[in-house]
Write a structure and sequence with these properties.
The complex is a heterodimer of chains A (132) and B (132). In chain A, 80% of the residues lie in helices and 0% in strands. Chain A has six helices and no strands. In chain A, α3 crosses α5 and α5 runs antiparallel to α6. The radius of gyration of chain A is 22 Å and the shape is elongated. Chain B has one domain: Fumarate reductase/succinate dehydrogenase, transmembrane subunit (3 helical TM bundles of succinate and fumarate reductases), CATH 1.20.1300. Chain B is built from four helices and no strands. Chain B is mainly α. The chains are: A mainly alpha (132), B mainly alpha (132). The interface between A and B is large, with 38 and 38 residues.
């Protein structure tokens, strides 16, 4: 074994883990790509549905939401949209907000607000689907 | 001071952004804007869940002149972010990095987003007019 301290300041354990100083891998980047991949067909489906529903009365929209496939796809769409949104907004904040505590506060607020908005949307869909 | 002699990143007020840079910042702006669109989607679903009166209020707001202008903006932002997002996924897969290719795919994104917006909005307005 050549002297580890000679070539690098990193410990052997750190080198084996291979995660660098950020202590994480590409989870954020990968999450953004996977959600975008899922959103391509979901958004196209939703856009076509909305065009077909333009001006439709309450009963028609509710009947559409109650369809089993529609209910499931809407729940997936809402979850993917707000997950993708939270990841995207986080990058914007990290790029432009340079005070550490402000950055942290805004990112936490974004995550809480995204989670809350997604839950409200999913609850509304399920409430219609199960006919409250 | 010596530390100011380093090259600086483009001074945005005096630097004329290249075509692809304009598309890039537009992708980010439409992404943030679509966050508000996602909140409107949740409000629309919540109104549908709350009953016909709430839904009628939401529908009349979206059907008004201001509502239609705002919707038009969201529809374009959605199609732009979708098309440019697909362009990004191709880049992530390793395709289309030549300047010539990046320019033509950028032009394609702008054209596709405008055409899809016009088509979706025209069909939506015709259907909304036919129903109401």
């Amino acid at each position: 074994m050549s002297s580890p301290a000679g070539s690098s300041f990193r410990t052997r354990l750190g080198r084996v883990r291979g995660l660098g100083s950020a202590k994480e891998g590409t989870a954020h980047w990968w999450g953004q790509r996977l959600s975008s991949l899922a959103l391509v067909p979901l958004v196209l489906w939703f856009a076509i549905s909305l065009v077909a529903l333009a001006g439709a009365p309450h009963a028609v929209v509710v009947a559409w939401i109650r369809g089993t496939v529609t209910t499931v796809l809407l729940v997936v769409l809402i979850a993917a949209v707000f997950y993708h949104l939270a990841l995207g907004l986080q990058v914007v904040v990290e790029d432009y907000v340079h005070t550490e505590w402000r950055k942290l506060a805004v990112v936490i607020a974004i995550k809480f607000a995204s989670g809350l908005a997604a839950l409200i949307g999913i609850f509304a869909v399920l409430r219609i689907a199960f006919g409250a | 001071m010596a530390r100011h002699d380093r090259p600086l990143s483009p001074h945005l007020q005096v630097y004329r952004l290249p075509f692809n840079a304009i598309l890039s910042i537009t992708h980010r702006i439409t992404g943030v804007g679509l966050g508000f669109g996602a909140l409107i989607l949740v409000a629309w679903l919540a109104a549908a869940a709350a009953g016909p009166e709430w839904f009628a209020t939401a529908s009349s707001m979206m059907g008004s002149i201001v509502g239609r202008i705002v919707l038009f903006g969201f529809v374009w932002a959605l199609f732009y972010h979708l098309a440019n997002g697909i362009r990004h996924l191709f880049w992530d897969a390793g395709f289309g990095f030549e300047l010539k290719d990046a320019r033509s795919s950028g032009l394609m994104v702008v054209a596709v987003s405008l055409v899809l917006t016009a088509v979706a909005f025209a069909i939506g307005c015709i259907r909304a007019g036919a129903i109401s």
